[in-house]
Write a structure and sequence with these properties.
InterPro entries: NST/OST, P-loop_NTPase, Sulfotransferase_dom. By secondary structure, the chain is α/β, with parallel strands linked by helices. Helices cover 42% and strands 9% of the residues. Strand 2, helix 6 and strand 3 form a beta-alpha-beta unit. Helix 11 runs parallel beside helix 14.
Length: 347
């Protein structure tokens, strides 16, 4: 009788072991199926890798920055994005702004930053804080591209730096926003600004006659003329420092952005807290335009230079006018160097 009971217990144990083995085998078969793995990886409950990590994994053997955050014309992430990251893409207010300066190299900087997979940038200049502030933050947010968690949303409007109302308005949006200013020699910048004016308004007066109140290379510099006024960097910076600590502003050396774009981009990426992904392998110098171009820009296998308006030829300026403008800007430049703790070496 006892022997029969032992046999029944052994049979139950055997049945339990066999059942457990079948469950384990089924689970192993399920998890080994690539289709099942792909399905579960695509679910929103799975926390995705950072976009920069995805970039490295996808491009380990390819120099082209296949931007994981690329979007189609509707602003929706395209097939280059993983399914896992599509679920979290939303529109939000920018965490970084390129606020100036006009003709300093802001478009180039934005194009270079677009190569980074953790950067999402608005295409056109919103001019929200200087022209369209009454439309409200919801309208402003609607202009931003969709972005994933961990990506930085940004826009550029060079007019912000010289706008009297912009510092307070930006601060009202965010106390922590990071601000980038591309600066170059104020005289060269003014001449570039004038060249753009001439291209749009043929027949405009000479640079010299507009720069001095008493005509060509006159005694008094016309500092209220916009191309010269913009170059009073210290004056404009004072307004921003009334609302933001200097640690939240980074000043890009406009001349070095041309001669050493990878070096300047390394500093910008550090300032934004980004991994240094945009490097010298992304640039080549175009001798014709006198400007760096992108070897393989986002969404293209062909090299790309900025538009024909970039690298526009400058008019010849009288030496006397250049000398007087240099004397005029010297104390303003020195004051600016002291404020930012950096000597840009402008003569």
């Amino acid at each position: 009788m006892a022997k029969g009971r032992c046999f029944q217990l052994d049979a139950k144990k055997l049945l339990f072991v066999l059942s457990l083995a079948m469950v384990c085998l089924s689970l192993y078969t399920f998890l080994s199926d690539p289709g099942h793995v792909a399905y579960w990886n695509a679910q929103p409950s799975v926390h995705p890798l950072s976009v920069a990590q995805l970039y490295r994994k996808k491009n380990a053997s390819d120099d082209m920055p296949a931007n994981a955050s690329r979007t189609d014309s509707s602003g929706t992430p395209d097939a280059m994005s993983t399914n896992a990251t599509d679920w979290t893409a939303t529109k939000r207010l920018p965490q970084a702004l390129i606020i100036g300066v006009k003709k300093g190299g802001t478009r180039a900087l934005l194009e270079f930053l677009r190569l980074h997979p953790d950067v999402r940038a608005a295409g056109s200049e919103p001019h929200f804080f200087d022209r369209h502030y009454d439309r409200g933050l919801d309208w402003y947010r609607s202009l931003m591209p969709k972005a994933l968690d961990g990506q930085i949303v940004m826009e550029k409007t060079p007019r912000y730096f010289v706008s009297a109302d912009s510092p307070a308005r930006v601060h009202s949006m965010s106390h922590e926003v990071k601000l980038i200013v591309v600066v170059r020699d104020p005289i060269t910048r003014a001449i570039s600004d004038y060249a753009q004016i001439v291209s749009k308004t043929p027949g405009v007066a000479s640079f010299e006659s507009l720069s001095f109140r008493n005509g060509s290379a006159g005694v008094e510099v016309n500092s209220q003329w916009s191309p010269l006024w913009i170059g009073l960097y210290a004056q404009h910076l004072e307004r921003w420092l009334a609302y933001f600590p200097s640690a939240q502003l980074y000043f890009v050396h406009g001349e070095r952005l041309v001669t050493d774009p990878a070096g300047e981009m390394a500093h910008v990426q550090d300032f934004l807290g980004l991994e240094r992904i945009v490097t010298d392998k992304h640039f080549y110098f175009n001798q014709t335009k006198g400007f760096p171009c992108l070897k393989k820009p986002e969404g293209s296998s062909q090299p790309h230079c900025l538009g024909r308006t970039k690298g526009r030829a400058h008019p010849q300026i009288q030496e006397e006018a250049m000398r007087k403008l240099s004397e005029f800007y010297r104390p303003h430049n020195v004051r600016f160097y002291d404020m930012v703790g950096k000597d840009f070496g402008w003569q």
